[in-house]
Structure formats: C-alpha cells, structure tokens
Design goal:
The complex is a heterodimer of chains A (459) and B (587). Chain A is built from twelve helices and 21 strands. Chain A is of the alpha/beta class and 459 residues long. In chain A, strands 9, 11, 13, 15, 16, 17, 18, 19, 20 and 21 form a ten-stranded mixed sheet that branches. A seven-stranded antiparallel sheet of chain A has the order 1-7-4-5-6-3-2, with no helix packed on it. In chain A, a hairpin with a 5-residue loop joins β4 and β5. In chain A, α2 packs parallel to α3 and α11 packs across α12. The longest helix of chain A is centred in the last third of the chain and has 25 residues. Chain A starts with a strand and ends with a helix. By secondary structure, chain B is of the alpha+beta class. Chain B folds into four domains: 65 residues, Elongation Factor Tu (Ef-tu), domain 3, CATH 2.40.30.20; 70 residues, RNA polymerase II/Efflux pump adaptor protein, barrel-sandwich hybrid domain (OB fold (Dihydrolipoamide Acetyltransferase, E2P), Beta Barrel), CATH 2.40.50.100; 237 residues, Rossmann fold; 132 residues, Bovine Mitochondrial F1-ATPase, ATP Synthase Beta Chain, Chain D, domain3, CATH 1.10.1140.10. Chain B is 34% helix and 24% strand. Chain B is built from 16 helices and 26 strands. In chain B, the strands form five sheets. In chain B, strands 8, 18, 19, 20, 21, 22, 23, 24, 25 and 26 form a ten-stranded mixed sheet that branches. In chain B, strands 1-2-5-4-3-6 form a six-stranded antiparallel sheet, with no helix packed on it. In chain B, a hairpin with a 2-residue loop joins β4 and β5. In chain B, α12 packs antiparallel against α13 and α13 runs parallel beside α16. Chain B is globular and about 95 Å long. The termini of chain B are far apart. The chains are: A alpha/beta (459), B alpha+beta (587). Chains A and B meet through β5, β11, α6, α7 and α9 of A and β1, α1, α4, α6 and α9 of B. Bound molecules: adenosine-5'-triphosphate (ATP) and magnesium ion. Adenosine-5'-triphosphate sits at the interface of chains B and A. Magnesium ion binds next to α3 of chain B.
Chain lengths: 459, 587
Amino acid sequence: MVKEYLTISHIAGPLILVEETSGIKYGEIAEIELATKEVRRGKVLEVTGDKALVQLFEGTTGLNVYQSRVRFLGKGIELGVSLDLLGRIFDGLGRPIDGGPKIIPEKRIDINGNPINPTARNYPTEFIQTGISAIDGMNTLVRGQKLPIFSGAGLPHPQIAAQIARQARVLGKEEKFAVVFAAMGITFEEANYFITDFRRTGAIEKAVLFVNLADDPAIERIATPRMALTTAEYLAFEKDMHVLVILTDMTNYANALREISAARKEVPGRRGYPGYMYTDLSTIYERAGRIKGKAGSITQIPILTMPEDDKTHPIPDLTGYITEGQIILSRPLHRKGIYPPIDVLPSLSRLKEKGVGKDKTREDHGDVTNQLFACYARGKEAKELAIILGEAALTELDKLYAKLSDKFEEEFIAQGEEENRSIEETLDLGWKLLTMIPTSDLKRIRDEYIEKYLKQSNQ
Amino acid sequence: MKKESKAKIIKVSGPLVVAEGMEKARMYDMVRVGRMGLIGEIIEIKEDKASIQVYEETSGLGPGEPVETTMAPLSVELGPGLMGGIYDGIQRPLDIIRDKTGSYITRGITLPAVNRRKKWDFVPLVKKGDEVRAGDILGTVQETPLVIHKVLVPSGIEGEIRVIKKEKFTVTQTIAKVRTASGLKEIRMLQKWPVRMERMVQKKLPPEVPLVTGQRVIDTFFPVAKGGTACIPGPFGSGKTVILHCIAAWADADIIVYIGCGERGNEMTDVLLEFPKLKDPKTGRPLIERTIMIANTSNMPVAAREASIYTGITIAEYYRDMGYNVAVMADSTSRWAEALREISGRLEEMPGEEGYPAYLGTRIAEFYERAGRVICQGTKNREGTLTVMGAVSPPGGDLSDPVVQATLRTVKVFWALEDRLAYMRHFPAINWLNSYSLYLDNIEAFLSKEIASDWMKLRNIAMAILQEEDSLQEIVRLVGKEAISPGEQLVLETSKSIREDYLMQDAFHEVDVYAPLEKQYQMLKVILELHRSSKHALEKEVPLEKLLTLKVKEKIARMKYIEKKDMSEFNSIEREIKREIDNLIAK
Ligand SMILES: Nc1ncnc2c1ncn2[C@@H]1O[C@H](COP(=O)(O)OP(=O)(O)OP(=O)(O)O)[C@@H](O)[C@H]1O
Ligand SMILES: [Mg+2]
C-alpha cells in the first residue's frame, strides 16, 4: 500500500525535497532507500501542495537525486517498548548495538510524546539523597525534578553524573529504580566511561542506553533524547519505576537543531540558533515529573557544556529558563583540585523548599543552607577585597569569613568520587564550619536550632 | 451551508497551515482544520488563500484535508463558574479534559469552558419595568464564597425589563427579557466576547490607590497602583515567578487571573495545589476561590500560547466590569512574544529586531493598554480596576532585548531583577537603584491618609541612604573603609540594615511572606529612628563602634517575623533604641 517516490528534486544539508507526492502528512516518517539498498529514516518538516520537505536523521551523504526511493510510512517515528529494554544498549535511533536480540515490543509509542496536563501533575517533594554535599546540602534534588548540569569542556561532569546515578536514593524506601541514559554526540571514551561504570556497579541491569557518538549522524541526535524519554515514560508511568534520565550533551543536540534550521534558511535567532529553540527544548525537559495516581516518576539530569563557559550562551540560557534550577561547574574550583567543582552560589534548585526540612531531611536544613550561602558569599567577597587592598584591609570578622569560605570549599564541597555522605553528615559538616564565626552572626538560623545543633558541633 | 465548503489545506508547516478556497474567510475568524477538526484562527488572507495558526499539534495533518470556517472570531465564554478554574490558552477546561482523556493532553477536544448543567441561585437587583442599558447589573449569583458574580446587561442591549425572576438557573437559561428598540431580547448568564477586542468602558481615570502586595520592596519603594501596569524582567532563576505567585496570593485585589504563558508545568501545579490551602487574610476563605488560571505551558502548542494572554485579559476585563479590582499576571510575556515571532517567521513576514515582527511593540502596548482604572458601562457609574503585571525573560538577562524595551516604553513600573542579588540569596532580587515606579505621586495622598502622613518622607529618606551607600561603596572598594568618616560609615550600616532587615523578604517563611502596609511602615520607622538617633549620638561624640554593636540590632533583624497581633512590639523596640542610645550619650 505504501507508495514509493523517485522524485527527489533537491538535496541541501540534511534536507531533501520530494515532489509530485500526494497524501503526505506533516511530521510523518519517511524511509529513503539509496542505490546501495541502504535505508535511512527521515521526518516530514513541511508539506506544500505536492511537495514534501524531509529531514534525514542519518544525513544525506551519498544520496543521489535520481536513484533514491522515498516511502512515506503514514505515522510518526515510534519506539517499540517492553521491559526487555532494561539492560540493553541502542544507537541514537533505537536499534540494538550490544549484539543482543531484537526487542519484541509490548507496544509502539510515538517518540514525540504529549504534554502532561498541568492538572494531572503531582508536585515533586521527595528528597533524593545523592550523597554529594554541594547538591544535597545546598541545591537539593527532588524526585520528578529536571536539574541540569552546566559544565564546560574538560570538566568532570561525567564523573558527577555517574556518581549521582550510583548513589541517588530516596531515604527509607526500597522501590523499583531505573536509569535511562542518552548520549548525543559525545566521544566514545566518555560514553564508555558511563557504560563501564554501569557494568562495574551492576546498574546496567536496570539501565537503558541510547548512544549517538560524535562520529554518528548529527541529525539523529534530534531523535535520541526523545527515544530515551519515551522509554522513561513507559517505565515510570506504566511500570511504576522511578526513572533517572541522564541526557548528555544537550549542546550537541542544540547544534543539530541549528544545522536543520540553517539548511531550511530560517531567520536565525541569537548565535544562529532557531527562534523556536526554547519551545523545542521544552518538549524535552518538560517530560519530567510525577503524575497523580501513578507510582513512578521521571527525574531528569541533562548535561550541557557551555561554549566558552558562558552561562548566557543560548543553550544554557534557554535551558535555565525551562529547567527547575541548575548545577553549575566552575573551572577555577576544578583548577584548585576540588571535586566536584560545583559553584554553589549561581547553582540553584528551585524545588528544594518543598523537599527539605522536618520529616524530609532535617528541621534545620533550610536555615543551615541559607546561612552557609550567606557566609560563603561574604567570605568570597572579603577575599576579593583582600586581593585589591591587601589582607590588612580586612576586619577581623571578614578574615574569619574568608577562612570559612576556603574551608567550605575544601571540606564541604570537596569529597571523593566514591564518597557517599548521608544528609546528616552533610548538615553536621555545615554546622562544624559555622562554628568558625561568632554565634551572633548566625542571623539566618532560628535560635532553637542554634541551641540544639551548634552545641553538639562545639563538642 | 456546510456542503459548499471546498476549502482545503495546501500547506502545513508546524503550527501554520495554509488553506485555499477560503473566499468566505474573515480575518481572525476561528476555523476547524483537517479531519481531526483542530482549532485554528485566520491570521492572514491573500486572495482565496488563508493562513491559519493552529492551536493544537499539527502532526498528521496534510494537504487536501478540509477546512471549515466558523464565521466567528476567537472568543471566550463568560459567566458564573469560571472562578477557581484552570484553562488552556483558548479556554478549554484542563481539569475536565483530564477527566475525559487522562494525564496527557490530546487533540481535537472541544468542551465548554463554563459548566452548562450547574444551577445558580439568581437574585435579581432590578424589577419589571426598570429601564436598563448595557453594563447595568441585572442581578447576582454567589459564584464562590469569596466572589459575588454580577450579571450584567450585555453590550448592545438597552430597554425595559419585561420579565425577571429569582430562581435557580443554568447559564444558558433565560434569566430576563428586555424590550428593546429592536424587539424583545432574552438574556442569559452565559455571554461571549472576542478575545482580541477590548471590552468597552465609559471612561478611564488615573489610578490613585496602591495595589498592596505585601512585598516591602514593592509597596514601599516601587508601588503599582490599582489599574496600573508593571513589568518584571530578569534572567532565569532571579525570582519572577516567585514574586508573581506571592502577588497572586497576597495582593489586595478581589480577583486574580494568573496566566502561565509558555512556562513550567510544575509552576501551574504549584498554584493549583497551594491556593486551595492558602487563606484570604480578610475572610479566611481559600484563595483559589478568587483565582482563575490560564495555563499554556512551554511544551503546549505555541499558537495557543499567543492567544493565552488575550484569553486571560478578556476574562479579567469581564470581572472588572462588575466593579471589581482585578489583577492579571502574565508569566512570561517573552514566551508570548516568541510565539508571535515563530508564527510571523512562518508567514515569511519581514523580520525586525532579533527576528521579532515589526508590530511587536504595538501588540505589547495594546495588551498593557487594557489595564486601567475605569468607570464601567451602565447607569450606576461603577468603578473597576484592572492591574496588569508581566514577567519578561530576556536572553542572558540582557535588558536591551526588544521585548524588554518595548515593554518599558509602555508600563509605568519597572522591577529590575538582578542575578547578582539572586546569587547572594538577596530575595526578592529587585535592584533598588534601577527600578522605578511612576505611581508614587498618584498614590501619595492615599498613603498619607490611610497609613501615615510621613510615609513618603520615610520612603525618600531610606531611598537616599541606599543611593548614598552606592557611591560610598565605590570609595571603600578603592581605598578601604578608613577613608570615610564615621558619619558615612553609619550610612553604610543603616543601608545594610535596610537591605537585609527590610528589603529582603523570604517568600517561603509563613510570616515574612506577607507584610501589611502598617507593618512596613513600623519597620521602616524603626530602622530610620535608629539611624537618626545614632547620628545624633555621633555628634555627641559617642564612638562609632559602640553604635555598631547595639543590642537592639538583633531585635531589628527579627522584626520581619513579628506577627500582626504583636504590632506593639515595634513601640518597645523604639523605646529600647532610645534607652540604649541615651545610655551611651550619658556615659
Ligand atoms: N522572595 C523569595 N524568597 C525566597 N526565595 C526566592 C524568592 N524569590 C526567588 N527565590 C528563589 O529563587 C528561585 C527562582 O525563582 P523563580 O522561579 O521565581 O525565578 P524566575 O525568575 O521565574 O526564573 P525563570 O525565568 O527561569 O522562570 C526560587 O525557586 C527560590 O529558590
Ligand atoms: Mg519563572
């Protein structure tokens, strides 16, 4: 029944124009068969009269206008899902690359998904302990949150993401847990780091990996995160699992988006990225959360490398406008040898307020966090002043703050890659640092907590 | 009529569809697109071809499919039953959609926005024989325990009441009959209004009364008036949404319309879950009973995002016409502008700055122009206000962004958020030197009468101290603290206190989240009293160090947490200031 066309009239970048077609639908999938019998997949980006503009996921290299056949499949791009996905590795378009058997799907799902009705959402409130103080203590992650890592080239984001994947758990609960991992345009080495780590810890049994490497087709990256999120939605909302989704590197995803936009000769937005990039990214990031009446959840940790470490670059900028906070890595901290080099001041978890405190972490958590923020900020300011005017220009108190901020980086932020701190350990560490300054300066902490916790730390 | 529709799709490009055979098409009419009957709106006509922005996802749509015009513009339904509701950008009820189709939003659904079956107790306020005209109140229904819904004579109707009854009615039943020049007209509670058309008023008046938000930095320093306009631009994570949520919760408006326009799903969920729990300070009723939400989140169709702010503001005007103080917040107008840009790009219009269409500025101005303090239609000269506040999300926080610039040309209040303050956890991160309000003069009379005659004086002293701090800090940064006089150091000390003990306000603290005007006044008075008497002490040669370590300072730092019932504490703090300083001077 499927009609075949030999009417490609135009090839430009990842796009082809097919003419004299009929009955083509916007967004449907096309198969393009090359003279070599190789089959590639594409998606209809626009239909005008009898012309269809198709974007090829695997690129147009080697494509010929006269000998290539195009078939339109009458449906959107789909992923076959089943519980057998767990423990498997796929390419960026969902084809097995681990030598394992083909998946026999329970059903096929359109990878674009549908927006969650805001009235069907449940607000994320459950504290996830990652065992990393800079996150748990200062920028707490909760279940169902989308919290990206803003990194830079050469910074240890793979280590941090892997450590989170290893250590993340919800206190006092044993539940079905899974990791869905999507690699977009990263190096073999980096991908291998994750795969090896998942194997080493046995996490691979409960993981699904979609891998598009740096030398894989760039446009395929448009589909990869959607494959991953379709899998995650299936596991979370149909199989009651708590799913952690790691998407890396979103910068490569955005660059693929830019490539398509350029090929379509669209009016470019900032730095050549298309004007609709905000909306496009939101259709990825908003696929996180909890849904009323469903046991599972999707927590998303997208990773992106900021070009030139610039937070105002469109990719981190638009991401920050969509996600519920951000963990920002700092090159100066990394140079000082601090792992994880998390810059807590510009980092933020917007959902922490509802995830911390009595019955969740500990009653003093919110106050301690605020106080540590204030002290660290003041200490850093004092240190900057000392650089300009010399140490002598600082008051005694400012010197204490400066010292506290150093200790905060060395003892609180810094920790081992295998070190898994409980939230109590993290908070106690915070109190220990706060003993360095006069109690009367602890304005952000309620007296009762000072009474209760500072005494213990002083002993 | 239907059979002669030959109109069919010839092009599909994302949310934009072009159809031919559209000779009958009129600009801004609603159409049904394709076999799925997706809802769209005509936004451009060239001969028999019409460009349509489609409010639902268009994948699966293709050339040849039929298009049907409804011959009516995009309109909202107005009537009792809106309050407490949550709607998408074209007023489809999201809670009912969820009951019908589950957790995800699917396509091609049409549901009435206003419940057709519910019966309301209608209480007439006019009687047979009365002369009425558009805007007059026919009667009321108790829409929620917080809101009395006033049923107005619809626009275009004038004449004598022939029939009106006290009875239970659904919104589609006839509640009254009016003899007009063109015959007997039946009136129902359910009315419709095209969203892109401003609702009529008799006249506009200058705003005079502040909208009390309970946010100190706003009410004291950069107030917005009831019927005014304000914008809150800032980079991501600087606190736009938190402030708008706080205002939606605590502002002394009668009705809130909250438009979530291309933002996060969880933020709407937050309002949905929190507002039924938060209590109106005056009545103790849940705040959701006075709130209407429009939610078109970032991942919902982009054309409906464009429509969402018009849907929201039209509903707001409708309640304003009843004589209420209505406040609208739109988060974020940048996402609305981007939707406009996307559609414009697909129409291949000539792009202006940053790819935005040339008419961006006009559209923004038209939107904010719908705010105002007005004399409503009708014989009774009712007054109503509509206050509009919009978040703006410029790329990289850069205020030269065209949306920010066009907004600043229109609105009268500018709350400038700054990421530097947010990193220091100084919230609300509103920069006190760059922000402004053009309503200070309008509302001064009200404040000095209702709160205190020296309100504006205190405000100006505090502002001057903050400004002086800025220039002093410059000096300190260059040459150190020793270079400035004790008097100047005292200014730094006081400005720090204004910043930390006054401007900073924790939206997540149950007491601090909302400060009534009376409390704001007392707090500021205490801080400035300490400043005044410390200055006096300096003149009496009390050493500065002594003044910097007064015991009362700890109490001042905790003033924020003083509850309404303990207002007398402020007097005791003032007495303590006097006692401590007098002691120092006496030594
Ligand atoms: N008044 C406040 N009190 C305490 N915390 C605040 C306050 N305002 C903002 N915050 C903190 O800042 C975070 C970000 O605020 P918010 O979500 O309002 O930012 P935004 O400007 O709306 O960002 P975006 O543009 O990405 O939507 C909040 O989650 C909260 O942690
Ligand atoms: Mg926001």
